[in-house]
């Protein structure tokens, strides 16, 4: 079972994503956070297999939170999930320690593939992001 910490400052988005993942028998959301402070508290207190982390949040942005997660739990895989196109942040996120980057306009099946790959220790880049990082 892949246990996910979902970090996004939009409650409706988190709820929608959680509903989307309910159909997956091997993935479950076991934690939610609306900001970086909540995310870091959960990372320090509980075990997750992957963090889905938004870039644009109130307070500390996702790239700053990514650095703190890397410091607290270096082996915890992080998949950046953002409304920003890959051209804007994919390379920065990967260089910052994310194991993947996917835009929020991706198809649900692509997100599920990305979660599985990153949780298994791989890297995930969409077709749009791969040439930017190579």
Helices and strands in order:
Layout: E1 2-7, H1 11-21, E2 27-33, H2 36-45, E3 50-53, H3 62-72, E4 78-82, H4 86-95, E5 100-103, H5 108-119, E6 124-125, H6 130-133
Helix pairs in contact: 2-3
Please give a structural write-up.
The chain has 134 residues and is of the alpha/beta class. The chain has a single domain (2-133), classed as Rossmann fold (3-Layer(aba) Sandwich), CATH 3.40.50.2300. Helices cover 43% and strands 21% of the residues. It contains six helices and six strands. Strands 2-1-3-4-5-6 form a six-stranded parallel β-sheet, with helices on both faces. Helix 4 links the parallel strand 4 (78-82) and strand 5. Helix 2 packs parallel to helix 3. The protein is globular, with a radius of gyration of 13 Å.
Instruction: Report the CATH architecture.
Output: 3-Layer(aba) Sandwich
Q: Indicate the low-confidence ranges by residue numbers.
A: none
Number of domains: 1
Biggest pleated-sheet summary: 6 strands, parallel
Shape: globular
CATH level-1 class: Alpha Beta
Mean pLDDT: 92
Helix content: 40-55%
Q: Name the beta content range.
A: 15-25%
| Strand order of the biggest β-sheet | 2-1-3-4-5-6
Q: Nearest-angstrom radius of gyration?
A: 13 Å
DSSP strand count: 6
Oligomer designation: single chain
Helix count equals: 6
Task: Kindly report the CATH topology.
Answer: Rossmann fold
SSE order: EHEHEHEHEHEH
Annotated CATH homologous superfamily: Response regulator
What's the N-to-C terminus distance? 31 Å
Alpha-beta content class: alpha/beta
């Amino acid at each position: 079972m892949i246990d996910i910490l979902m970090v996004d400052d939009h409650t409706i988005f988190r709820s929608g994503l959680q509903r989307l993942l309910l159909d997956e028998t091997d993935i479950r959301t076991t934690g939610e956070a609306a900001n970086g402070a909540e995310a870091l508290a959960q990372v320090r207190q509980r075990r997750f297999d992957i963090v889905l982390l938004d870039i644009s949040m109130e307070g500390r942005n996702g790239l700053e939170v990514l650095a703190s997660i890397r410091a607290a739990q270096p082996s915890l895989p992080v998949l950046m999930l953002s409304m920003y196109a890959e051209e804007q942040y994919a390379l920065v996120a990967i260089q910052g320690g994310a194991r993947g980057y996917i835009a929020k306009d991706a198809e649900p099946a692509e997100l599920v593939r990305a979660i599985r790959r990153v949780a298994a220790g791989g890297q995930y880049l969409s077709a749009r992001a791969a040439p930017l990082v190579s």
